[in-house]
Amino acid sequence: MEGPVQIASKTQVLIVGGGPCGLMLSMELARRGVASVLVDAKLRTAINPQANATQARTMEYFRRLGFADEIRALGLPADYPTDIAYFTRYTERELARFELPTSAEAASTARDQLGGWNAAELPHRVSQKFVEEVLRRHADAEELTSIHYGVRLTGFEERDTDVIATVEDVATGETQTIEAGYLVGADGARSFVRRALGISYTGETGVSRDFFGGKMAAIYFRSSEFYDKVPHRRAWMYWAFNPDRRAWCAAVNGRDEFAFHTQLKPDESEDVSPERAKEMLAQAFGAKLEVELLSVDTWIAGHALVAESLGGGRVYIGGDAAHLFTPAGGLGYNTAVEDAVNLGWKLAATVKGLAGPALLPSYAWERRHLATRNTAYARQLAESIGNYVPDPLIEADGDAADAIRREAGEYLDGHARREFAIPGITFGGRYDGSPMIKPDGTPPPPDAMNIYVPSASPGGRLPHIWLDDGQSLFDAIGLDWSLLVTDPANNSAARFRVAAAELGLGLIVVELARPDAVELYGSGLILVRPDQIVAWRGTANEIDPLGLLRELMGHAAAAPGKTPHASSGQNDAETLLRG
Known about the structure:
FAD/NAD(P)-binding domain; FAD binding; flavoprotein; globular; alpha+beta; 2-polyprenyl-6-methoxyphenol hydroxylase-like FAD-dependent oxidoreductase; oxidoreductase activity, acting on paired donors, with incorporation or reduction of molecular oxygen, NAD(P)H as one donor, and incorporation of one atom of oxygen
């Protein structure tokens, strides 16, 4: 940022943090007519690859905002395979390979609903640095957003009717006060906002494993000879599985850029010199490789942490400020985007005076519940790969070593299918027990990592369907409340429209009088929240639409149990992250 701070002194929402959660939240608010100011101490969006997988649910939300195709065009070339491949070393023996479609094949694969993917979009393998550039560009284009990198939050005071925050230009030291109706901390693992609230992480940290447990080195490099020297078919992710150097290496652009991660052994220094970085690359590669180092950093694997509270009153947290993952399954950044979507519609309704007192607090309850679920799944995947130790003879010659490699290949193939085909995690998260859901007494489908059972049982994601004109159902329902009508004889839509209008809510009615829709959705009427979660289903004869919508907007429901901001003390995770 150049020159003095040029920021509005008053805004409806102040967002701290310009990563995926903060940028997504700014757009969700703007599309609903709510202004925000976003500040981030960094000078720009990410320059390192960071997260490498955008899950299908995140892509569906990008589609709703209009730029999923733009995201899918980034990263790897359209015809580049997104396989997960395991080797003793990259230039030596291949142990296993899980083949996955290219980005060019994604649209047709999604329409065919293959592999349990009931989806408008499939996952996309793209580095977070590319995603953040798109998010920032679209956030900047919104009239109601004001994005400021190079500005840090230095303090805030929460009052009954607003939050008074102080920000500082990191280049000049000039400070400014901002008055905001609400403040959201999406400011990362060392979140200033979370610490100021006295909220600690809870969960598992400091775990030691053979891999994904302890200090990791992250090496972002460029090499024009990588593909020429690797004697195997191209892959998106290359894993090295040997006793000397376990690692994974993700292709960033499909030409010459790569993100390499390896666990540091107990006797290896955390200060990784350029020479040592190149040695570690060569160990995993199995030969000397000419590289240009773009960055070398370290990070800690072994986290499965969720904040004690996601806030309350006029201050909330999301993203890494609220939960920390070991990146098995690629769930951290994707969970952060869902935080923004859940908070966005509830915060906008609250700012505009449409919500009752229970709606906004439900964000903290619902998303903490999902973060606990998702970190547990990530931990399972980290244990699956991290506790599987290479046999000392895996690189030897002879029949016994061949048998060891076959056994390892079978295990790694099974693990890849568990980690990289996860429609159950992606689509199966539910908000059962939330006061913003009206249950109908039907049992929810089982929550399983690799199996998604489409169900319109209230509390879960609306199952997807392709419409007769080839459009996605999610394109038709938009950003507001929606009512699906699968019974052509049901004339209750007008009552819902009247009720929604009385409460100032947008409501889109979609008629789906098709046998497959009747079977899929299981009722004549399905009421869907703005975050595409089924809130209620049934018939209008059994319920008052106005009373139902009032309850689901937080006017008549009791707020979920509030966790106070303050913590009794900072736990070991806080000490570890203080760094």
